Hints:
The chain has helices at about 5-20, 25-35, 75-80, 95-110, 120-125, 130-145, 155-160, 175-185, 190-195, 195-210, 215-220, 245-255, 270-290, 300, 305-310, 415-430, 435-440, 460-470, and strands at about 1-5, 45-55, 55-65, 130, 170-175, 225, 230-235, 235-240, 330-340, 345-350, 360, 365, 400, 405-410, 445-450, 450-455, 475, 485-490. The chain is an alpha+beta fold. The strands form five sheets. It has a six-stranded antiparallel beta sheet with strand order 1-9-10-2-3-6, covered by helices on one side. The chain has a five-stranded antiparallel beta sheet with strand order 7-8-13-14-18. A hairpin with a 2-residue loop joins strand 7 and strand 8 (about 235-240). Helix 2 packs parallel to helix 5 (about 120-125), helix 5 runs antiparallel to helix 8 (about 175-185) and helix 12 (about 245-255) crosses helix 15 (about 305-310). The radius of gyration is 21 Å and the shape is globular. The chain starts with a strand and ends with a strand. Residues about 325-330 have low confidence and may be disordered. GO terms for molecular function: transferase activity. Pfam families: G_glu_transpept. Keywords: Transferase. This is Putative gamma-glutamyltransferase.
Amino acid sequence: MVCTSQALAAQAGLDMLKKGGNAVDAALATAIALTVLEPTGNGLGSDLFALIWTDGRLYGLNGSGHSPAKMTPHILAEQGYTEMPLYGWLPVMVPGAPAAWYVLHERFGRLPFAELFGPAVAYARNGYALMPTVGTLMKSEYEKYASFNDNPAFAGLFKTFYTNGIPPVGSLLTLPDHAKSLQSLAETNCTSLYTGELADAIDAFSQKTGGLLCKDDLAAYKPLWVEPLYTTYKGYDVWELPPNGQGVVVLMALNILNGMDFKNRDDTGSVHTQIEALKLALTDGKKYIADARFMKTPPAYWLSEEYAATRRAQISAEALLPEPIDPGSGGTVYLCSADHEGNMVSLIQSNYDGFGSGIVIPGYGIALNNRGHNFSNDPYSDNAIGPRKRSYHTIIPGFLSKDGAPIGPFGVMGAFMQPQGQLQILTNMIDSHLNPQAALDAPRWQWKGGKYIEVETNFPVKLREALRQKGHDITINPEVAPYGRGTNHLAH
């Protein structure tokens, strides 16, 4: 079984299962294919996080990249900025995904590593029909980066993805430079991106166009095996990866909600309380989550009943006004896989925002992430800008188990929507007893900061109005992408 947002990518994973591969092989082939098939959300310059269930336990992999050594606390002022820009070289971090592909395969994979690249290389070289969702995103991404058209640092973006302008839906999209880089990664166990030809190309283009990232930064990078965190919510164990990711926010919110009754998902009080719990948890997460080496307060506190009780007591009948954030829609892909042996993978991969920084290495098709945008501008923050440091990370794969037995992986996409979407899916299933598909399909809300809530068009009208009476500023957003879509393989 393989679930993801793009059918051809899922087929790439299924092909590995048919060849005798396991769930890890399937997940990796899917992830690699998605860099070609959904380039608006991820690529060869992405980061990756994964949860792997095998041999009766869960393993965690943090494949997020660190900042360049030259990203000092004073870099913004030195370059004339008051805050971290979203695009350009400054927010670029070391790509973690390719290295994570290899270490994940080395530990748990079965098929030859290079074989996992076959479908992706074929799609990149021979082309594929542009599907409506990605076609729409290609247009919006072009408009987003259009102002950089004359900037030499962005030349690779337009040459790689917009050779003949915005590609129409249904047209054949080929990515020959991307295919070349994929082939290089396959032949070198991904080392070419960190110490070989691809690293040289990144280093040279960075030096030429004003980047901080250099070959030494790439060579110094290693993914991290980490111990997953969990909380028990109404008999179910909900698993997330530890910081620097925001998965702990989901667990914090669930702990605040534990013991409350949410059987009726359309009950005003239930939805109001869930929104308030999420607002409190996400506000704290944004302030305190960072590279684990720099966090002054350990995750254990955020998962404690002391913390949950303190925040639970602050929820009232009226909408709170915590420190605001702007979640945004992000650029991410999520996938999950399972095999007949009981192995399961929950994996998420992202540029952070669309094509990321907008920097694409000419001749290689490597779109570099802009994850450094999630550093805090506060020099006293645990998440402050610094050299060789991992920033706060939005992408979070989830996993559910009960009584020591796996139920399955789950996840959604969309930057700061991810903990919100996960919370809603979990309460839909556990509290309202919806089946997995219904839990995904149910109309969602998204906190956008302050008292501002966006809801999908099919969100119940009476519930909308009742939430307004509680002080929530409700707006309908008809777009689908901001609500995170999502995938799960939950045997509920």
